Amino acid sequence: EETAQAAREGGGAGAGEEMTTVRVADIADGGNLYLHVAGDDGLARVGAGLARLAAEHGTGGAPCALKRGALVAALFDDGAGGGPAWFRARVAALDSKAKTAQVVYIDHGNRAAVPFSRTRPLPPELAAAPPAARDARLAGVKAPAVHEDFGRDAGMLLSELAWGRELICRAYGRCPETGQLRVVLHDGEVPASVNEGLISAGVCRINKKEMAQIQKQFPTSSEFFDALKASQEMAKKSRANMWRYGDVESDDEEPYYNR
Questions:
Q1: Partners of 186 in the β-ladder
Q2: Distance from C-alpha of 131 to C-alpha of 6, rounded to nearest angstrom
Q3: Nearest-CA neighbor of 166 among 8, 15, 6, 23?
C-alpha cells in the first residue's frame, strides 16, 4: 500500500530515465532524501493555500480523522521567527496514550511528533495536490542506518556534498519495494557523482541487488555502474572507514548483474 501511495504521490517523474535540476529538501540518512525539482511551482501554490487556511482559522487545531496514512494539516515552527505555521503532513504512526502523531511533512520531507491538538483537516484542494518534495534514494548505494557504524558519517557526508546546491539529477525509475525515485546526483563543479563520493569515502557501499535491477531496466546505466565499482575499489584499497579491516561484503549478497 505504501509503495503504491509513494508512486502516486511522485507524479509522472521517475517512470523512465530522466534528467532534471533539483535541490535537497531533507536528508533522512546517507542514502535516503527528499528533493525539490527546479521550476516546479507546486510548493508555492500549496504555500498560498496554507496561508489562506491560516488566515481563516489561525493556528487553532480542529478534530480530524487521525489514522496511519491520513493526510492532514499539522503545525510546525521552522525557526524563521514567524512562529508555528500549517504544513501538509501524512500520519506515519499514532501514540494514543501521549496523544501525538508521528508525521512526515510531505512538501519538505522532515518528520516530527505533533500533538493531536495541533492538527486539523485539509481543504480538499490542498489534499489533492501532489507532494512538492520527491521521496528519493541514491541509486546503487547501500547506506548504513543512522544508528549503525558510519551511519551518521554517511548522513553528514551526504549533507556536505549535496545540501544547499543546485544538482543535476538522473532518475532510474522507482524502487519496486518502496516506490522511491532512484537517483544519481551531480554537482556540476565536481566530476564524480554524489553517489560515487559516498562510496569512495567508505561510508556506504554498492547495493548489488538494486544495481542489477537498474541495469536490466536501463542498459545505459553501465557507465554509472562502472564508476561506482571503481569508487568502491578505491575505498577498499585505501581501507577507508568500513573497509579498514578488509572486505565487509558477505558471500550471500546478490551478485553484480552480468552484462
A1: 168
A2: 10
A3: 23
Task: Delineate the domains of the chain, giving CATH numbers in brackets.
Answer: 19-38+133-243 (2.40.50.90), 41-128 (2.30.30.140)
Residues 106 and 112: their CA atoms lie apart, in Å, by 12
Residues of the chain with pLDDT under 70: 1-17, 249-259
pLDDT for 16: 55
Q: Is pTM beyond 0.85 here?
A: yes
Sign of the Cα torsion 97, 124, 23, 83 reads negative
CB-based burial, 56-65: b 16+ in 10 Å, e otherwise:
eeeeebeebe
For 168, other C-beta atoms within 10 Å of its C-beta total 14
The pLDDT score that the predictor gives to residue 6 is: 42
